[in-house]
Amino acid sequence: MLSGVKPTGRPHIGNYFGAMKQFVDLQSDFDEVFVFIADYHAMTSDTKKLLIGQNSIELALDYLAIGLDPEKVILFRQSSVPQVTELSWIFSCLVTMPYLMRAHAFKDAEAKKKEVNVGTFNYPVLMSADILIQDADIVPVGNDQKQHLEIAREIARKFNTQYGMIFKEPQEKILEETETVIGIDGQKMSKSYGNTIPLFATDEETEKIIMSVPMDSKGIDEKKNPDDYNLYKIAKLFTNENQDKEIRSMFENGGVGYAEIKKYVANVINNYLKEMRERRKELENNRDYVLEILEKGGKIARERAEKKMEEVRVKCGLNAE
């Protein structure tokens, strides 16, 4: 299993439930698990506004805090495996521009600004190299990344057809019930929309955000359908059966103001995240340990990638057999 996340700032609950939590849930189900910090991918954004190196360390802390076990998971920085950029170039010579122009990420970026850098355009090719170079079978991703897995499979088929069988065709793993996490404004939760709840916010920050969730003008005594409210959709991610019943009854029975419901939801979220937030504080005081994990993981991933690239170079005729 392999997957990764860009180090572009504090992760939010959408990142956690949409992808990161799967790493923890699945880490014991595979003989090998690779999780990488996609610092090369982060460079498609304005690097003047990004502290990519520092953010990479912070994201490693996040991964370990949510429960990744370094005894089970190879955690590394993408840039520790330069072979992926070599393979990305080879893949770039196999795919056409019209094919990549259909990619959602490119179309979205093109719609938002006049000029799109080549890195953004080539993003799915580099992602394919990340996946295929490690012989990944399963890639846990958010639903918005599903098309990129289809591109990776297509690239694998193109290479295998042209040069000979060498690459597996990976499959995505998506949790259907959390494939899209709603933000506080009802849109998909995204940093670009400014509608997120940071995973490692303080209790006070979390409560402030929850208290700002828009509601409607219905009176306190009116009965309401909880499924109509973004607040409930967010809360449902964190609730156990009893808590869910409690929140639903607040909406359905009436007599409870929105402020009281929001405070209850904030408390549920903070209690759910309490242990991992405390674990992260402990790790912050032992950064040498985190760096050691990244260096060890990078060495393993790099050696594995180089072994694959030796085969690729021969297949492509770059190295004589």
SSE run: EHEHHEHHHHHEHEHHHHH
Content-based structural category: mainly alpha
Radius of gyration: 22 Å
- CATH homolog superfamily of the largest domain: HUPs
| Main sheet attributes: strand count, strand direction, barrel closure | 3 strands, parallel
- Roughly what fraction of the amino acids lie in strands? 5-15%
Q: What is the count of β-strands?
A: 5
Quickly count the domains: 2
Summed up, the helix count is 14
Roughly how much helix do the residues carry, as a percent range? Answer: 40-55%
Strands ordered across the widest β-sheet: 1-2-3
Plain-language structure description:
It is a single chain. The chain has 321 residues and is mainly alpha-helical. It has 2 domains: 210 residues, Rossmann fold, CATH 3.40.50; 80 residues, Tyrosyl-Transfer RNA Synthetase. The protein contains 14 helices and 5 strands. A 3-stranded parallel sheet has the order 1-2-3. Strand 1, helix 1 and strand 2 form a beta-alpha-beta unit. The longest helix is centred in the last third of the chain and has 30 residues.
Brief description of this entry?
This protein is mainly alpha-helical.
Topology:
Blueprint: E1 2-5, H1 13-26, E2 33-37, H2 39-42, H3 52-65, E3 73-77, H4 83-92, H5 97-100, H6 104-112, H7 118-121, H8 123-132, E4 138-140, H9 146-163, E5 171-173, H10 203-211, H11 230-235, H12 241-253, H13 258-284, H14 287-316
Parallel strand pairs: 1-2, 2-3, 4-5
Helix pairs in contact: 3-13, 3-14, 4-8, 8-9, 10-13, 12-13
Protein traits:
mainly alpha; Tyrosyl-Transfer RNA Synthetase; 2 domains; single chain; 5 strands; Rossmann fold; globular; 321 residues
